[in-house]
Automatic annotation (TrEMBL):
Gene Ontology cellular component terms for the protein in this record: cytoplasm
SUPFAM superfamilies noted in UniProt: Creatinase/aminopeptidase, Creatinase/prolidase N-terminal domain
Residue intervals of the Peptidase M24 domain: 312-531
Name assigned to this protein: Xaa-Pro aminopeptidase
Family: Belongs to the peptidase M24B family.
Gene3D superfamilies on file: Creatinase/methionine aminopeptidase superfamily, Creatinase/prolidase N-terminal domain
Amino acid sequence: MLMQTHEARLDALRTELEKRGLHGFVVPISDEHMSEYVGSYAQRLHWLTGFGGSAGSAVVLKDKAAMFTDGRYTVQVREQVDGKLYDYEDVPATSPAKWIAANAPEGARIGYDAWLHGIGWAEEAEKLFAKKGIELVPVDGNPIDAVWADRPEPSKAAAVPHEDRLAGRSSADKRAEIADWLKQEGYDATVVTALDSVAWVLNMRGKDVDNTPVALSYVVAHADGTADLFIAPEKVTPELTQHLGNAVRINDRADFEPALAKLQGKTVAVDPRHAVAGIFHALEAGGAKVVRDDDPAVLPKAIKNEAEQQGHRDAQARDGAAVVKYLRWIEENAPSGEIDELAAAAKLREFRGLSPELKDTSFDTISAAAGHAALPHYKVDEDSNIPIPPSSIYLCDSGGQYPDGTTDITRTVWVGPGEPTAEMIDRNTRVLKGHIELDLAKFPDATSGGALDALARMHLWQAGVDYGHGTGHGVGSYLSVHEGPQRISKPGGAFPGTETPLREGMILSNEPGYYKPGEYGIRIENLVLVVDAGIDGSEGKYLGFETLTHVPLDRKLVDKSLLSEREIAWWNEYHARTRDILAPQLEGDDLAWLERECAPL
């Protein structure tokens, strides 16, 4: 019998925990690869609680339960999760481990799935619990899976080769680079667990996770340049086998854990930021010497080669034409008050889909009207969906996955009739000024993203306002739209990567914003490529940014009198370049709209 209510699901989990002699259980949003986006089979937190955000966790004890989310989801968690069943707890003010230590009785046995949590979390929780006489217990099989009768199966979609001409390097070349690193460090092998790293190393893509073209699999890369791929047999085609070649041995994904136990006596590198605790446990139990070190694919994956850079430019141009068609459609149709957020997102997907190159969206479109635009990570669904009100701000953050590149763009527009308020125009102009400041930045090679973050905020700070998210994240090449290690964010913040040196070839977003709770939100986002700044006479190497995204910005939300001559010149040059790139792809009313929006300020 299927359990329809979240209360029934919670009761069933508690019954299952009691059978196993457990007094509590921790439920993260995670899969066996610690992915940002997880397949439907791994959406255990959503099934249990109803929470649909992309970051959060729950703890279930015998007599109480709690939901843990950060400031991005303060509103959403209260809308989706029953407050009679779960307390709402704010991270980082508290955490699941701290809450358990405060609420579980001495002698309690708290279960966790070691294949869904990082080793760092497990070790910290164990230490904290030991002080309170609480035991952390890795479970044998997830208890939620035992009570989730209609749990979806993992995707059976085939994995496919990613052409070398798009990747810019062969898999053999990448594996040789990793082998050189292993030998240099004195390691025998490394376990590659992040799905986008596996995809990058093998030049392989898949359809197993929404928005990210990866295949559920693991790689063990060896110091001799060979590799073992662990993947479900039904996902392997003759084309993939031929593409991988003899130096990549193909194994059943079910054999991954036993294979780790056979690496006895080997020195194996594992990245604790990307590998679950279960991998460490299996290696250590088998007698391997485990060394914690960085995933060797992360940095070379982030530094795009010439083929990937050109692919991004091509994908952005294709994507920009679709977004122009969409913005014209919004301008003409939204003032009626009859277009809602879901319909708007669907229309944008339709325009992108006119290109046969489109494989997927790169994340769920943030189609946000009025007060919803003030929620930076808003996700529209049937319950939250509202019509776009006339005389309001509408924010749309979206992206596409193309074989040659991954896109991510935010545009904020005024929906008529009438005029935006003076405050809206002021805030948007300050966001624009910060965006331009970062876009025009020149900085010494290896400067961190944290050192640049204030450039995007300075004009907002002068008005006594700020925004609560990072300014820029890395972006993959037909891979994850949020890719490390680089990041532009406040130093010392909650996000890793702020101190990572920026290198030529990295791609980042430039997305300052402003949010007035309950009323409106503003964000301007383009993607930028780190390039040589070309400063004559510079003492040492200096870097800057090449703008990759080209779509007009809404001039109705700009106060020209607040812009300097330098900023006006940026605006006019940006829009002239936008017209040059997009005009050949447009015709009729779309072309006329582009010409109008790209006229000098």
